[in-house]
Specification:
- This is Ectoine hydroxylase-related dioxygenase (Phytanoyl-CoA dioxygenase family).
- There is one protein chain.
- The chain is of the alpha+beta class.
- 27% of the residues lie in helices and 17% in strands.
- It is built from eight helices and twelve strands.
- The strands form three sheets. Strands 1, 2, 3, 4, 9, 11 and 12 form a seven-stranded antiparallel β-sheet that branches.
Length: 293
């Protein structure tokens, strides 16, 4: 999968790009199977502890987590890429289709940025009233706001992909085109890391619907937010970031690693055990902020 000149120009002009048909089912299914297995293991442990009465074993991937979470919110505690450190997700970080797209924008010396997440957006009607809104619907923000200022000159690009169709009904993103040209806009931490209300650009947002297998690419200065999931399934998604090898990652207390190199192919990390070791040995500096705000 390679981007066309027209797609590259569109990204450089708008600050975002939606690319369909980047991934095949063979690319995504190992990740889905691994997430399903992780959820199953958590559910069985909670069931054995008397905290979860019904395992909902016959429910599909798109619904099972929702039904388990309704019984016990503990099922989602620490559930993220750097929480479970699975083999399939590690392999996906170096997926050739993904890296071919990233190379079109960043060049051939690519590192996987440590800011990466699995997102489970529940249907709005399933969300508990005591949960803050930003827990499900991330407010208007720029991704650079969750990096440290030393990475200001780094070109860190977000690659967001849904594991189910991301539509207006299931809760896709909204993005503000062109605004990335203004650079960093002040954020504050109230209500989740979000753009200060009086600084929010008055720009009509674009609905960034993206089918399963597609990819939403965003400049780190592109404002975007999540909208409510009005469907009856979980909107699963993965958001990853890549940057040029050698540039500050914006999260230097966490491990980034080389995923592609034409100049030094031996520098590419291929061993998942080493990736896990790097994460497990991370010792965040006490009192050091991981965000700008």
């Amino acid at each position: 999968m390679r981007l066309s000149i027209e797609q590259i120009i569109s990204y450089q002009t708008e600050g975002y790009l939606i690319v369909p048909n980047v991934f095949t089912n063979e690319d995504l299914q190992p990740v889905i199977d691994e997430l399903s297995a992780e959820i199953d293991a958590r559910a069985r442990a909670l069931h054995a502890g008397g905290k979860l009465p019904d395992l909902h074993e016959d429910e599909p991937f798109e619904r099972r987590y929702m039904l388990l979470h309704a019984q016990c919110r503990e099922i989602g505690r620490g559930f993220d890429i750097n929480g479970y450190l699975g083999e399939a997700i590690f392999r996906f970080l170096g997926n050739p289709n993904l890296l071919d797209v990233a190379e079109c924008l960043l060049g051939s010396e690519l590192s996987c940025n440590p800011i990466q997440h699995i997102r489970t957006k529940l249907p709005a009607k399933r969300v508990y009233s005591d949960e803050p809104d930003y827990f499900q619907n991330v407010p208007w923000h720029q991704d650079c706001a969750v990096t440290t200022p030393d990475s200001e000159a780094s070109e860190i690009i977000t690659f967001w992909l849904p594991l189910v169709d991301a539509t207006a009904e299931t809760g896709c993103m909204e993005v503000m085109p062109h605004v990335f040209k203004r650079g960093y806009i002040n954020h504050h931490a109230e209500g989740g890391t979000t753009i200060v209300p009086e600084k929010l650009p008055q720009v009509a947002p674009i609905l960034a619907e993206c089918p399963k297998g597609g990819l939403v690419i965003m400049n780190k200065y592109t404002p975007h937010r999540g909208i409510s999931n009005r469907s009856d399934i979980v909107r699963w998604s993965v958001d990853l970031r890549y940057h040029k090898t050698g540039a500050p990652s914006g999260r230097d207390v966490h491990p980034s690693f080389v995923v592609r190199s034409r100049l030094q192919p031996d520098s590419v990390l291929t061993e998942s055990a080493e990736w896990r070791r790097m994460w497990r040995e991370v010792k965040e500096e006490k009192g050091k902020s991981l965000h700008r705000v």
